[in-house]
Amino acid sequence: MNRFQRVLEILDGAVGGPGAPVGFHGAFWRGTTRDEFVTTTVFGNDLVVVGDGAGSNLVRALKGQAPFGADLPEPPPDATFNRMPSGREPVPAEAIAEIERWIDDGCPDSDVPSVAPTWHTTNAPIASSRTDDIWFLDPREGWAVNSNGQILHTTDGFDTWQEQFHAPGVYLRCVGFADPSRGWVGTLTAGRRLYETSDGGLTWNLVGDLPPLAPSAVCGLSVVDGEVVYASGTNYPDRPARMMRTVDGGATWQAWDMSQHASLLVDTLFTDADHGWVVGGRATVPNPTRDDVRAVVLRTEDGGRTWTDQLAPLHAELPLGEWGWKIHFLDDRVGYVALESFVRAAVLKTTDGGSTWTRIEVHDQQGNANLEGIGFLDEQTGWVGGWGSDTFQEGFSSATTDGGATWRNANEIGRFINRFRFFRGPRSVGYASGRTVYRYSAEPVAAPRPVAPQQELLLLDDNAPLRTGVPLTVSLSVPDGAEQLTVDLWDRFGEHVRRLVDEKEPVPGRRTARWDATDAAGRPVSGSFLLRVTVDGHSESQITQLTR
């Protein structure tokens, strides 16, 4: 297939296939040569300006830009004609970009370049702990939530982005959208567990009046559609495992206890309003810790009224101190679950739609462990990532090309990965969220964009992962005119530990804050922690391991 034929394929696909009837403007691209196509006019307007994709009416019509888009809910000024294709779903932004590049390159009829897709770093901001979650509507438009308390939006695959919301004292965990307007973000922060938007993220509102049995922290979200959303939590074995859902677009929520089935719950995935999954761990001893749990993969076929642990036949073989973190299905047959453990790496795989599962250990040369993110492009090719070890400092990633039989080091894809999302097809595109957002595609790497002034490292002297003794000393700078300074600490699982500093009108200049490794009640703590410094509308964070 050459590049001109690829353009025709995209246009046919947009209307339902090469034989689908086309009203309004007709199927003007069918039966034409390349030369005929570039000189075509539609309603008296030139279709293509060779060398100028953005200025070509074909591209403008596909994007719904004036003089096109008269049929859109908010048509652009001076719109006279409908967006193309009229009355159908919009063409994915990735496909429009492909046509635009073809026109920019002079409309060649050369072969489509055979370029192997690779992972590369996008221009999303570095989150010094990590970007916890991402959600994409199509291969270009998506959202991300990170450890700096930001909700970010992109329309070009994070070549560029905008901060839509900043939550200084909130630990954002998960994000999901039903359509370009309606979305939700879950958090680990008491009293602010869920945010929603109905305008594509231009405004985010706290969801209040959650039912008494709502999870104390929202670790997983599954947005089925604009009416049905499920949420799961928590990843704390000393709190009740619970779920909640809405079936009326968030007007009301119902919640229920899951303690009969699990001691902790993390990720959830629903394929429709009734059929879904939630993963986590279950302990059989009182007052359990994470060392006491074994993985569970819970399945429902009636909207959460009843649940079955599909790992029950494996229970005796599953190690203690290991639980389900992220769930990922390729199709209705093949699925995977990342198993988190501080000291080992393993995944679960099903090839029969989740009726049975096989545990697969992950061994690579670097000794990856403490997995969280998992993503497969096909049944043979996949990746896992997470914290990398029990110190939470390495952020290792691993890859397989034989379905998990063998694994190799794959840190080039990114580090500290917590979520993968894929769009599969002839030109597969994928994303991973970790220390930043990473992209998998055959496109050339986007040139780095200048960092906006508000995103430069202004507060912390350094935000690289830190291993330190007690006390922890934080070196920071307060800019002139600051109205509020806070310094917060969360443990590795998002539990708020202590607020070290809370000052109005702080004195500008360099200063230090010291932490004696005790929580808000004065009890000693140890392990890995997320430190976040916030001045007014800007936050910076750092992952820190305390050694005694």
Question: What is the first-to-last residue Cα distance?
Answer: 63 Å
Q: For the report, how would you describe the main beta sheet?
A: 5 strands, mixed
Specify Rg, calculated over alpha carbons: 25 Å
Average residue pLDDT: 91
Count of distinct strands: 37
Q: What class would the helix/strand composition place it in?
A: mainly beta
Global morphology: globular
Count of runs of 4 or more consecutive helical residues: 4
Q: What topology, given as strand order, has the largest sheet?
A: 31-37-36-33-34
The portion of residues assigned to helices is under 10%
How much beta, percentage-wise?
35-45%
Unreliable spans are 451-455
Domain Photosynthesis system II assembly factor Ycf48/Hcf136-like: 252-364
Pfam families: PSII_BNR
Keywords: Photosynthesis, Photosystem II
Protein name: Photosynthesis system II assembly factor Ycf48/Hcf136-like domain-containing protein
Question: Please, could you describe this protein's structure?
Answer:
This is Photosynthesis system II assembly factor Ycf48/Hcf136-like domain-containing protein. Residues 252-364 form the Photosynthesis system II assembly factor Ycf48/Hcf136-like domain. Pfam families: PSII_BNR. This protein is mainly β. The protein contains 4 helices and 37 strands. The strands form 10 sheets. A 5-stranded mixed beta sheet has the order 31-37-36-33-34, with no helix packed on it. Strands 3-30-29-28 form a 4-stranded antiparallel beta sheet, with no helix packed on it. A hairpin with a 7-residue loop joins strand 22 and strand 23 (358-361). Helix 1 packs antiparallel against helix 4 (93-104). It starts with a helix and ends with a strand. 43% of the residues are buried. The model is unreliable at 451-455 (pLDDT under 50).
